[in-house]
Amino acid sequence: MTSEITLLEAVTLALDYEMGRDQNVVLLGEDIGANGGVFRATQGLKEKYGFKRVMDTPLAEALIAGTAVGMATQGLRPVAEFQFQGFVFPAMEHIVCHAARMRNRTRGRLTCPLVYRAPFGGGIHAPEHHSESVEALFAHTPGLQVVIPSSPQRAYGLLLGAIRSDDPVMFFEPKRIYRTVKSTVINNGVALPLGRSFVLRKGRDVTMVTWGACVVEALQAATHLAAENIDVEVIDLASIKPLDMGTVLRSVEKTGRLLVVHEAVKTCGVGAEIVSRVAEQAMCLLKAPPSRLTGMDTIMPYAKNEAYNLIATEDIVLKVRALMENWQ
Q1: What are the tens digits of pLDDT across the range 109-156?
Q2: Cβ neighbours for 215, distance < 8 A, ≥ 6 positions apart
């Protein structure tokens, strides 16, 4: 069956498919059963699979994370939802100290096949903890995989891949484009591999690496710049960890210029890691210093000032022009 659906609907579709395929897949989180979650990503699944497989939990993120670890080590494949990425901090001990270390701690005797889902990022005029982008915290943790889809197709395929992984996955969904980006999704159960990026647009002049909601502005900027005869190659990183540096390096070899765009804060962000690796492995290929365009080093502002912190298409256009004009 094919249909044009939103990113949010693609998440629901993937959960439904995998729960039907594998009875060990269970869901847990705050209000995910009766209400379908804060964004309705699990709507209808409790009615279809029952309360033993779609479990409403107390408002306790540490409990959700810890329970999921226990389930995962005993044969289940839990998908645990945090209402927002910024609510994850009470659960960090279970995620970092137990889920991420289980395979190493038991010398492979136990694995931890679980997924922690959470909407993240700004753009919906929500308070600070509802709008954070802290993917770098988890990318820094050995044992965790970090995945961020940017379209319905990738949300569907990557979530299937995450659920089928034998190691824990942090699956962050950019809520700003939950309902604004639509595309055709084939509900065939084909998973996308984790740890691979996607070249969304070929180009010869500049390599632009981004992920999540910023992919929308990146593609818009690339279209605008094409009218100025600046050809931008756009790469959707998709997998924050492990990083697919092979795709990035091959692109930089062709273009000689790199711009990394992300909504998260600049200091110690994932963009710094990408720029560093390119500098280490491909410095001789560069025609210009690698550059970043990021969110500000500040807490996400409230609604009236949120737009100042978010990256607009015009910001990307100006940054690319500077790369081209100053480093011919």
Answers
A1: 999 999 999 999 999 999 888 999 999 999 999 999 999 999 999 999
A2: 150, 151, 200, 234, 236
The whole model's pTM is what? 0.96
Contact between 211 and 262 (Cβ < 8 Å): yes
Buried b (16+ CB within 10 A) or exposed e, 187-205: eeeebbebeebbebbebeb
- Do 32 and 83 contact (CB within 8 A), yes or no? no
Q: CA 33 to CA 48: how far, in whole Å?
A: 11
pLDDT higher for 185 or 327? 185
Per-residue tokens: 169: 């996955």
Q: Spot the catalytic one: 98, 130, 140, 224.
A: 130
- Residue 189 gets the label, from left (phi > 0), alpha (psi -120 to 50) or beta, of left
Question: What is the β-pairing status of strands 239-241 and 145-147?
Answer: antiparallel
3-state helix, strand, coil in the chain (%, to 5): 40, 20, 40
Q: Is 130 among the residues known to form the active site?
A: yes
